[in-house]
Amino acid sequence: MDTHSPGHTAAPTAPLLDPFALAKALSGVHLIGGEYVPARSGRRFPVVNPATGIQVAEAAEGDAADVDAAVQNAARAQKDWAKLPARKRGALVYQCAALLKEHQEELSRLIALETGKALRTESRVEAGVVADIFEFFGGLGSELKGESVPFAPNVLSVTVREPLGVVGAIIPWNVPMLLMALKVAPALVAGNAVVVKSAEEAPLAVLRICELMNRILPPGVFNMLSGMGPECGAPLVEHPLVKKLTFTGSVETGKIVARAAAEKLIPVTLELGGKSPMIVFADCDFDKTVSGALTSMRFTRQGQSCTAASRIYVERPIFDRFVAAMTDAVNTMVMGDPLDEKTDIGTIVSEGQLEKVRGFIEEGTKTPGATAHVCSAMPTDPALKKGLFIQPVIFTGLTKDSRLVREEIFGPVTVIAPFDEPEAVLAEANDSEYGLAASLWTNNLKVGLDLAHRLEAGLVQINQNLVVQANLSYGGVKSSGLGKEASLEAMLEHFTHKKTIMVNMG
Ligand code: NAI
Ligand code: MG
């Protein structure tokens, strides 16, 4: 056993494929200054397996005292970290990616246990993309370049990229490892130190990643706190030594984070979800588009995705056929124990989210004129009877003023509506508070590209709807957020500032 901090349980060095044992081993600690430490207050909160309702671990419940310790450690460590050559920092982050790959199966199982996301269809995919993100940014150290700027013949004028200092990162529970990687990887390579506050529903896999990376990184540059939003997240965003905020989650909390950034006059990046339209034309490749709709709606993640295609518009001639084919396809998906290889669809993350999603389904079902196509069988295993399973629902017959069409449900619920004209569907698609992602399905690229340019969204895909990919700028417009993640631009624009230096040689 690797005992970073005597007196506290610590996780083993080698990959541990039993997620129950690993969850226990990771109980009760933050990771601050390269050490496992309990909450200063000694408080802990339960981590529950959403497939059974049974507690599998406890997490340290952080407050302002823990935040201060982590930020002070980060601020000290950042000074030396920033002095390392950028390529050396990148090389260390790249090395972390290799270690994360060695632990991919372990991390997949742990994230499946704590979030209820199916191992085969979701959790392994997430763990793979996480390693890829660290590998991608690890290779970008030498891109932290400045410019020489033409000013006057006898004045040398150059710019340099400098890190911002300590970055405070707040992450959600739906794809916690990936959404964390999008923040931590570029922040570190750019020479910042990071303090992450994990989501209360999913504190374990990100803690394990932090511990693995701390075997390679100098202590203090990457710290992990667990705790509640107001008690642990708020003091992090307000801490005077935190010089940059980056947040993924709800619009409501995003505004709190943005207000704190405004108060301190520091930069902030926000990714706040969406109500992403999928527009299907009658000339599309029908079968590919039906399976594309399943992927787009992220049914294997119970729809708990900020880019979920939660509004699907289908050209009228194929509307009925499309709804029937999509319902049939969702019906073939297997719902069950997230850790079972046969399972396509696992559980909702928490009771609170389950209630929220049920509320939307109830409202849709009661709406006059609406039809609820309820898909996919519930698991029958008695061990799962307290599991937070919910059957996917495809609604038709809802009008555009319905809350189900306007609000982010973050559950396995989508709405399909017919359309007749490209201009009309474009207007409906853009009639939203959100603007994160959109997809178009057609073989007519003239129409597709025209709409792609006029859709109000940060990411528009034609004939596919992939999740976040390394090297492609990702981030929304309108209430979906501010700034970009996942790309070189994200590292340069969001984790450094540009200093101008002038030398008068006259
Ligand atoms: P949330 O935005 O409240 O939570 C996200 C993170 O913010 C968590 O780590 C939480 O502890 C933290 N937080 C909460 N209050 C805070 C505060 N006052 N100061 C600092 N940090 C704070 O989201 P929640 O409650 O988990 O989910 C509610 C809804 O938000 C979901 O149903 C979904 O619609 C949306 N959401 C969107 C996500 C996305 O990927 N864009 C991810 C998660 C949720
Ligand atoms: Mg909340």
Automatic annotation (TrEMBL):
Residues 37-501 form the Aldehyde dehydrogenase domain. Keywords: Oxidoreductase. Coiled coil: none annotated. It comes from the Bacteria. Transmembrane segments: none annotated. InterPro entries: Ald_DH/histidinol_DH, Ald_DH_C, Ald_DH_CS_CYS, Ald_DH_CS_GLU, Ald_DH_N, Aldehyde_DH_dom. The active site is at residue 271. Gene3D superfamilies: Aldehyde Dehydrogenase, Chain A, domain 1 (3.40.605.10), Aldehyde Dehydrogenase, Chain A, domain 2 (3.40.309.10). Belongs to the aldehyde dehydrogenase family. This is Aldehyde dehydrogenase family protein. It comes from Belnapia mucosa. The lineage of its organism: Bacteria, Pseudomonadati, Pseudomonadota, Alphaproteobacteria, Acetobacterales.
